[in-house]
Specification:
Oligomer: single chain
Largest sheet: none
CATH class: Mainly Alpha
Radius of gyration: 22 Å
Order of helices and strands: HHHHHHHHHHHHHHHHHHHH
Helix content: over 70%
CATH superfamily: MFS general substrate transporter like domains
Strand content: under 5%
Bound molecules: beta-D-glucopyranose
Structural class: mainly alpha
Number of helices: 20
Number of strands: 0
Length: 480
C-alpha cells in the first residue's frame, strides 16, 4: 500500500508480502477509487447525445452549443490544478468524497437547469469534479498498490474512463426517444453517490499520506488489514526511512520547499508534462468527439451516428482490457512505443485516405486501428505513469500539473480541429497528428524510464540517468 512496499530497498526479489485475500481487498478499493475515472468518461460522453435535444429546447446557436461542451474542459483544468494541494492538505480519501459531492451538485444543476446560462454553470461545476478526480485517482491508486500489480490497478482508471464513455453513449441511446436529455444527465448521479459512499464508509486513507503526516499508527493499522501485523511493521519502517531520506536529500541539495521546481524533480516533470500534451496532441479526441462527422465525410451514411459511437466505444474498451493484461508483464515502455508507432502509421494512412480519396472502407479501417493503438498503450499507460514517475513528496503536485496540461491540450485540440480541417484539409490535419506521434516516439525512446516492478527510488535514478544528471548508483536492472 505504499509504492514499492513489498520489497527491500535495492533488491529485485519476488513480491511475497501481500496474501491473496489482501490483494482482493486492494482490488475492491481500487475499483471504488476508479469510479472517479468513470465520472470523467461519462461526462465527456453524455453531452454529445444530450446536446441534440438541449439545442432545440433552449434554442442554442452553434457557438452556444460548442460552449456547453467546452466549458467542462475549462472547469477540468481548474479542478486538476487545485487537486494536488487539496489532496495533500485534506488527504486522498476526503478529497474523493468531496469530488463525489461536487459532482452531485453539478448533476442536479444540469438536470433542473432552466436555460443556457444555468446549464453552463452546471458544466463548469461538473468540470471541476472531473478535473479533480482525474488528477487525484492515479495518485490514490498508486499509493494503495503493491508494486506487483501497480500497473494493472493504475490502468483501471482508463478502463473506467472508457466504460464511462460507453455507458454515456448507451444512456444517450436509451433516452433519445422523446429527447429526454435531463434523464441523460441524471444518470450521472449514480457514480457520484458511489464515490461519496465509498469515501465515507469503505475506503482507507492512503497510508503513504498518513505516514508523511506523522499518522504512523493509523497507517500501520490500514496496512495490517491487507498484509498482517508483522509485514505492516516492516512496511511502515521502510516508508518512514524513505521519507526521512527524501527530506535529508532535499535539505542537502538546498531545495527544500521548492516542490516541483526542485532540480531533482525536473526530469519527472519534463516526462509527465510532455506525455500529457502528447496524449492529446496525438489527436485521439478528434476521433472520440467527431467520429460521426468524419465518417459522414467519407461518404458513408452517418445517420446512425450513435451506432458508430458505440462501436468506437467498444473497441476503445476492449483494447484497454488488452493493455491491462500486458502492462505488468511486458512493461510500460514497450506498450507506449508500440502504441505511438502504430498511431503514427494509422493516422498518417487515415490522412492519405482523405487526400487520395481512398475507399471509405479503408478510411474506417485506419480509424479503428488508430483507436485500438491508442487504447492498447498511450491511453491507459499515460495515467499509469503519472501515478508512478514523481517522487512521493511531489506525487500529488506532479499529477496535478500533468493532468492540467492534459486538459488544456484537450481544449486546444478540440477547438482547433474543425477550423484546421477547414483551412488545411482533413487529411493534412491528420498528418500533423502523425508527425506529433512520430516525434513522441523518439522522445519516449530516449527519456521514458521503465517503471514496471521498480520502486520510486529506482525510477528516479533511471530518470536522472536518462537526462544525464549525476547519479552515484548504476541504473537498476528491471525485474525479469
Ligand atoms: C484521455 C481522454 C480520452 C480518453 C478516450 C483518455 O486517456 O485522456 O482525453 O477521451 O482517453 O478513451
Amino acid at each position: 500500500m505504499v509504492q514499492g512496499f513489498s520489497r527491500e530497498p535495492g533488491t529485485h526479489g519476488p513480491l511475497t508480502a501481500v496474501p491473496p485475500a489482501g490483494l482482493r481487498k486492494i482490488q475492491w478499493w481500487a475499483a471504488a477509487i476508479a469510479v472517479g475515472g468513470f465520472l470523467f468518461g461519462f461526462d465527456t460522453g453524455v453531452v454529445s447525445g444530450a446536446l441534440l435535444y438541449v439545442r432545440d429546447d433552449f434554442h442554442l446557436n452553434s457557438f452556444e452549443q460548442g460552449s456547453v461542451v467546452s466549458v467542462l474542459l475549462i472547469g477540468s483544468v481548474i479542478g486538476a490544478l487545485g487537486a494536488g494541494r487539496l489532496a495533500d492538505r485534506w488527504g486522498r480519501r476526503r478529497l474523493l468524497g468531496v469530488v463525489g459531492a461536487v459532482f452531485l451538485v453539478g448533476t442536479a444543476i444540469a438536470v433542473f437547469s432552466t436555460g443556457y446560462a444555468v446549464l453552463l454553470v452546471a458544466r463548469i461545476v461538473l468540470g471541476l469534479a472531473v478535473g479533480t478526480a482525474s488528477a487525484l485517482v492515479p495518485v490514490y491508486l498508486s499509493e494503495i498498490s503493491p508494486t506487483s500489480i501497480r500497473g494493472r490497478l493504475l490502468t483501471l482508471n482508463q478502463l473506467m474512463i472508457t466504460i464511462g464513455i460507453l455507458v454515456a453513449y448507451l444512456v444517450n441511446m436509451a433516452f433519445s426517444s422523446g429527447g429526454r436529455w435531463r434523464e441523460m444527465f441524471a444518470c450521472g448521479a449514480v457514480p457520484a453517490l458511489v464515490l461519496v459512499a465509498a469515501a465515507l464508509w469503505f475506503l482507507p486513507e492512503s497510508p503513504q499520506w498518513q505516514i508523511a503526516r506523522g499518522q504512523i499508527e493509523q497507517a500501520r493499522a490500514a496496512i495490517a488489514k491487507v498484509t498482517g501485523p508483522d509485514t505492516a511493521d516492516q512496511v511502515v519502517e521502510l516508508a518512514r526511512q524513505r521519507i526521512a531520506e527524501d527530506k535529508a536529500k532535499q535539505a542537502a541539495a538546498g531545495d527544500g520547499g521548492q516542490g516541483l521546481r526542485a532540480p531533482d524533480v525536473r526530469p519527472a516533470l519534463v516526462v509527465g508534462l510532455t506525455l500529457a500534451a502528447v496524449q492529446q496532441f496525438g489527436g485521439i479526441n478528434t476521433i472520440i468527439y467527431y467520429a460521426p462527422t468524419i465518417i459522414e465525410q467519407t461518404g458513408l451514411n452517418a445517420s446512425n451516428s450513435i451506432f458508430y459511437s458505440v462501436a468506437i466505444g467498444v473497441i476503445n474498451l476492449l483494447m484497454t482490457l488488452v493493455a491491462i493484461r500486458l502492462v505488468d508483464r511486458v512493461g510500460r515502455r514497450p506498450l507506449v512505443l508500440i502504441s505511438l508507432g502504430a498511431m503514427a502509421v494509422s493516422v498518417f494512412l487515415l490522412g492519405l485516405a482523405f487526400v487520395a480519396h481512398l475507399a471509405s472502407g479503408l478510411t474506417l479501417l485506419f480509424m479503428v486501428v488508430y483507436i485500438a493503438a491508442f487504447a492498447g498503450g498511450l491511453g491507459p499507460v499515460f495515467w499509469t505513469l503519472i501515478g508512478e514517475i514523481f517522487p512521493p513528496a511531489v506525487r500529488a503536485a506532479g499529477s496535478s500539473a500533468s493532468t492540467a496540461v492534459n486538459w488544456v491540450s484537450n481544449f486546444v485540440v478540440s477547438l482547433a480541429f474543425l477550423p484546421l480541417a477547414n483551412s488545411l484539409g482533413q487529411g493534412q490535419t491528420f498528418w500533423i497528428f502523425a508527425a506529433i506521434c512520430a516525434g513522441a516516439f523518439v522522445f519516449v525512446r530516449r527519456y521514458l524510464p521503465e517503471t514496471r516492478g521498480r520502486d520510486s527510488e529506482q525510477i528516479q535514478d533511471d530518470l536522472a540517468h536518462r537526462f544525464g544528471h549525476d547519479t552515484e548508483a548504476p541504473v537498476p536492472a528491471e525485474r525479469p
